[in-house]
Write a structure and sequence with these properties.
Shape: globular
CATH superfamily: Cyclophilin-like
Number of strands: 11
Structural class: alpha+beta
Oligomer: single chain
CATH architecture: Beta Barrel
CATH class: Mainly Beta
Number of domains: 1
Largest sheet: 7 strands, mixed
Strand order of the largest sheet: 3-4-8-6-9-1-11
Helix content: 10-25%
Strand content: 15-25%
CATH topology: Cyclophilin
Length: 189
């Protein structure tokens, strides 16, 4: 499904070639095994060990855009915009800088039914896991509980094995890698 975003010409698509991601000595940013890896905090570049990250941003937000009907959802390998919680950001506006790459996990029907109940509660029943989405979540994996709540804007098109390796690196109690993990190159196509 590498043509995922080519079907939607009007959608801005940042595509990262994860083969260009390399590890360097030092401290990094968010990395939660079987969930996601997060980056984009401008404070992370020179962060001291143990420093809490995730608050650095531009002074503006990007309006939320949910495109589930167009087949854009939180399957493994997509890029999505981080944001503040609903209690301070009920519009679900996205960070202007911070993003995450979904790893997630594979789910069975019982778990997907539970997640659907949660989505119904948090989205006033506006987000429904379609049969196509359920098939993807049961075979490829992802983070379905984020659908309709966080903006997806791109996809890793090669090097998903590198994303897997990054999401498995040892982390501290703040989910920061013990050694920096840096994106050295990203391509916009």
């Amino acid at each position: 499904m590498n043509d995922f975003y080519e079907k939607i010409a009007y959608c801005l698509c940042l595509r990262i070639d994860a083969d260009c991601v390399q590890q360097r000595e030092g401290r990094g940013y968010g990395d939660i095994k079987d969930f996601m890896i997060q980056g984009g905090d401008p404070d992370s570049k020179n962060a001291a060990p143990g420093m809490m990250l995730g608050e650095g941003d531009r002074p503006y937000k990007v309006p939320a855009e949910f495109r589930i009907a167009d087949g854009i959802f939180h399957r493994r390998g997509v890029l999505a915009a981080a944001r503040e919680g609903d209690d301070v950001n009920p519009e679900r506006a996205s960070s202007a800088m911070q993003f995450y790459i979904v790893w997630g996990q594979v789910f069975d029907d019982e778990w997907l039914d539970r997640i659907q109940a949660r989505l119904d509660m948090y989205t006033d029943s506006t987000v429904k896991l379609t049969q196509e989405m359920r098939k993807v979540y049961k075979t490829i994996g992802g983070t379905p509980h984020l659908d309709g709540q966080y903006t997806v804007f791109g996809e890793v098109i090669s090097g998903l094995d590198v994303v897997d390796a990054i999401q498995k690196v040892p982390t501290d109690s703040l989910d920061r890698p013990l050694q920096d993990v840096r994106i050295l190159k990203a391509y916009l196509k």
